[in-house]
Amino acid sequence: MEKSGSLADCDFSVSDVVTAFKCPLQFYFSRKGIVAHFYYGGKSVGSFVHKVLSEFANLLVTHTLFESENELNVVENTLYRSFYNVAIKSKSYRTNLEDAWQYIKSIGAYFEGITVGKSTSEIRDMFILSERSFSVNFFGTQICGRFDLLLRDERKIRIVDYKTRDRDPEVDAVQIALYKYAVKQITGVDAEPVLLYILDGELKEEVFTEEEYSLVISGIRKQIKDMKDFLSGRKVPERTVDRTLCNHCSLRTSCKVLRKKFFGL
Ligand code: SF4
Questions:
Q1: Does 258 contact ligand 1 (Cβ within 6 A)?
Q2: Per-residue pLDDT averaged across 208-224, rounded?
Q3: CA of 35: how far to CAs of 40, 112, 175, in Å?
Q4: pLDDT class of 189 with cuts at 50, 70, 90
Q5: Residue 240, ligand 1, Cβ within 6 A
Q6: For the whole model, what pTM was predicted?
Q7: Pocket probe mutation, ligand 1, options 23, 29, 257, max atoms within 8 Å of Cβ
Q8: From ligand 1's centre to the CA of 255, what distance in Å?
Q9: Sign of CA pseudo-dihedral 121, 125, 129, 130
Q10: Average pLDDT score over the chain
């Protein structure tokens, strides 16, 4: 796999672009040094689950855990061990481990489904990148981000992004489209983007078509132009069109004052 660009060159992160899609104003404030983010319930479970899955991919690829080439239950055993390691190391006192285990069990079943009949080394070969940072040139703008997981299945590369919250298809499509673009830049391969929503122990898979991908990429190009215009003062960033988002925004009590201060609105 080729190396991606340096993270120091980054103009925008994937998360900047996603934020600008949700609320251009919040993106603007965050780039002006104001701490701004959306918060949702279950964040500590989500980040714990991400840590376990990252540990899982690392253990699978880098450790000699398995006695035999065709050891049974490789995926299940590695997940158990990863869960245990992270629970011991991370001191996640606020994480409900029972809830977290439900998520891990669901994703374990998904991994078992796609690795069925494969040998240990074939399974190892599938997990090609986990929690890896990248920086790529997106039509003249350097974008940086982090993959949850890249899976190689025969000739295909599957980009897997885990979500432990409700579906938000339009915004999630932006993130996964940028990952797909990055994989093409880094590896030259057209990857298949997959979002895995793990909610209440139930797993839903969402795959995007090429047509949807092309449309989303055009939307991202337009959004990035707007983001540059906001920062250079050529355009005033609007508030989110979905005002219910304001209930989850860290700026909900200061937004009005900040708009007055920055734009006199
Ligand atoms: S309070 Fe609403 S409009 Fe203001 S920055 Fe947050 S999400 Fe955007």
A1: no
A2: 93
A3: 16, 40, 21
A4: confident
A5: yes
A6: 0.83
A7: 23
A8: 6
A9: negative
A10: 84
